[in-house]
Amino acid sequence: MRQVKMIRHLVIFLFLIQIQELVNGQPNGPLMDSVIRTLEGPATTLYQFDTTNPNSVSFALEGEVEGIFEILNQGLLRSTKPLDRETKALYKLKVKTLNAAGHLVEGPFSVDIIVEDINDNLPAFNQTEYTGEIREQSRPGKQIVTVYATDADDPETPNGQLVYKITHQIPDPYKVMLFQINNKTGTISTTINGSLLLKKETHDQYELLVIASDLSFSDNVKVIIKVTENIWKNPKPVTIVENSTEPHPMKITQVQWNDDSAIYELQQRERYPKFPFSIDEDGNINVTEPLDREERAQYIFYAFALNENRVRLSRPVDIEVNVEDINDNPPVCPGLVTHFEVQENEGLGSSIGTLTATDIDEESSRNSLLRYRLLSQYPKIPEDGMFRLDLYTGVFQLIKNGLNINEVDLYVLRVNVSDEGVNPSALSTLCEVHIKVIDINDQIPIFEKSDYGNLTLSEDTPMQARVLQIQAYDGDQPFTGSSEIIYAIVEGDPLKTFAIDTDKTTNKGWLKIVHPLDYESKAEYNLVIHAINPEPLVSGVSYNDSSITRLNIIVTNIDERPYFEETVYQTQIKEDVPIGTLLTKIVAIDPEGDDVIYELNGDRRSWLWINETSGEIYSNAILDRETEPHYYVEVTAKERRNLSMKSSVSFQLFLDDVNDNAPKLANGYAGAVFCHPLSKKESVFVEAVDADTSPNSRRFRFTLGVGENITRDWTLSFINGSHTKLNMNHHDFPPGIIRVPIIVNDNGKPPLESTVYASVTICTCSSGNQCSSPPLDDFGRPSVGMALGILFGVLAVIGIIVAAVLISINKKKKKENTPKKVAKVDATSPTETITLAS
Question: Is-cis flag, bond preceding 249, omega within 30?
């Protein structure tokens, strides 16, 4: 009994809810062609049709009723069973009214019931487990396997749009993802880390857990990926003996792709004067000619594997070829004759000089290790063997007394220089050495002046400029190391701003500038200069103050241009910053400390403003990335008291995109033209574009706009993020131009929306499927005939006006020629006289 009461109360409650819906918010309207949208789900009241015809006493429903819809006599349309969009998304009904006798009064009117989607279906993978294979160290992005899930909800809405994601990677030895998944397509591929770290010997199998989710629900699947050996790997370095006499081309190594389908290609890593290598269809790498190590000791180049379209299958492998040296180059003397000097009182064991021969064979090998052997001495006065030559260093020493410049002033020595090469054999050469006996160095250099006083130099004196000549004299034997003078600045030049060149013939010294002068850094130099000989002084003789001079250099200031702290100033901001936003601060410094003012040059769009005192640059207008994403201007800094002293620097403004452009139709869209009558339901592809950059413009959402019979006549099909397909729901369209409104939303945050109009022209066609006459709605667009008609009409109006003027003038003349009594009036001008006389 209690259950019966509960059921009775529930029925009453539901009835009251239904009545409340009718009273408070149930859609209603006059009886006409209608499109009614309703969410899928339980039975519900859909619409209240109103009629003002007193003869209409009841409503009737026809069409795809299918036992799901009914209309009450009061015009209340409702569903009697649950609606499921996945079963059927569109019902075409007709509604009419009847009189008391059951005869038609109004209608029938078309009523389309569009069942809109709710998220009531779960994603589902089409397999319980996926497997795939990847070779170790494959290129990044190499596709392995694609997982696929379906969702019965509307794919045009987020309810049915799935997103894929990898949630787990087992094992995870490096704590980085080795695999990635395209969140739209479900394609799994290698990451950059995976291309480097996937190795069969480390882990030969990975398990991925992948989730596919819509707005509310998700499904999971396991993906097993097997790692296989990659035989596409760097071959071992190759060593080739130079100047080989073997037949060429000669195979030196081989590379091999993982199957037989690859095409092989070699590329240089750096540009060689010649590239003596080739590769054949089997991956055999050949050297095409003998190599010369002295020309190049090592070659490193790349081998690529390509598919039939010459697209690279993977990253290249490195080929390393080392050229092995043979002893094919003899030692070379430093010159035709090597000259040394020795004082006649030189002590035993003193080093006279070093003979340095060279060998271009491989460095630090026996082929370039040199041995020196003294063959002869001429003259043998006072005896043979006056000198010793070190076997490996080439150093000459005096080992016997008896040098006398009056008896022998020059010794000629012959030296054999040989390497220790064994392949094929050691090579040698003969060098000639002259040892000149010179007077003892018992005289010191003496400056002509002990003080050169003051020298004034402007700070802009160019480098390498000779600014002063100095002179010292030496009384030792001329043109020897005992009399040669070397000038050295020993004090007063910590930054090494100056240097002194010596004329070995005259021993004159030239002071020159080797680093820029800078008054602000150092305004005065007190130089102390020494004069010395390359040969040592004899015992008991020393350099003194006579070998020293002084010079005071005064640097004068010049007005220098300001300089900037940076070579280029750059700022990156969003394009929607408010006017007056501080962008950057330019800092210029005047070397003399004068005030600096700033100005902008090249601000073509007047986007910027600079504070002339502080150098701060502000936005001066609304910035627009789509107009100019990279905006370059020049900033000039000038001395306030001398505007001609100025410098410039570049300021570069990089604008980041914000979502400030609504989508629009692509520029090339011209609409579609179909011949009347239509034989089938046609479709039109519509492309939208957006001046913004990704992600604001990458993916658009298309929906039909509002208009009479729009949803009855048209539907949209998803293609991709930039295209949609406009489909006809029937083919009963009359001739004319139809402009279908489509609402396009972009992917920005927040998104922007615009309504575009896809033009569809339906016209009567000739046999060649060309419009034979313009459609009815095209009267607003001028044709050639219309243009000619307008032209002729204008000419006709002009002709009428001209004719009227001529007729008026003719009547006036006749009136003037008619005799009548007129007053005497004098003519006021010759022209008027002529007119009256005529």
Answer: yes
Place of tokens 């007193």: 54
First to last CA, the chain: 126
Domains and CATH numbers, the chain: 21-116 (2.60.40.60), 124-228 (2.60.40.60), 238-324 (2.60.40.60), 337-438 (2.60.40.60), 446-556 (2.60.40.60), 563-656 (2.60.40.60), 664-781 (2.60.40.60), 786-838 (no CATH)
What is the per-residue pLDDT across 669-720, written as a single tens digit (0 to 9) for each?
A: 777 888 888 888 889 888 888 887 766 566 788 899 888 888 889 999 888 8
Please name every residue paired with 601 in a beta bridge, in sequence order, or none if there are none.
Answer: 634
Question: Does residue 306 have a pLDDT over 80?
Answer: yes
Question: What are all long-range contacts of 45-48, with beta carbons under 8 Å and residues at least 24 apart?
Answer: 45/18, 45/21, 45/76, 45/77, 45/78, 46/77, 46/78, 46/79, 46/113, 47/76, 47/77, 47/111, 48/22, 48/74, 48/75, 48/76, 48/77
Tens-digit pLDDT profile for residues 444-460: 999 999 999 999 999 88
In the prediction, which pLDDT does 837 show? Answer: 28
Quote the DSSP letter at residue 366. Answer: T
Distance of CA 538 to CAs 74, 340, 440, 542, Å? 137, 18, 7, 8
**Each residue's pLDDT tens digit, 788-823:** 455 556 566 676 766 665 665 555 444 444 444 333
- What pTM did the predictor assign? 0.43
- As given in the structure block, the two tokens for residue 799 are 């002709």
> Which residues pair with residue 116 across a beta bridge?
39
CA dihedral 365, 368, 373, 376 (to 10 degrees): 170
By three-state DSSP, how is residue 599 classified?
strand
Query: What is the DSSP-derived secondary structure letter of residue 518?
Result: -
> Where does 459-545 show beta strands of DSSP type E?
466-473, 486-491, 498-502, 508-513, 524-532
- Quick one: 585 exposed, middle or buried, by C-beta within 10 A (0-12, 13-18, 19+)? middle
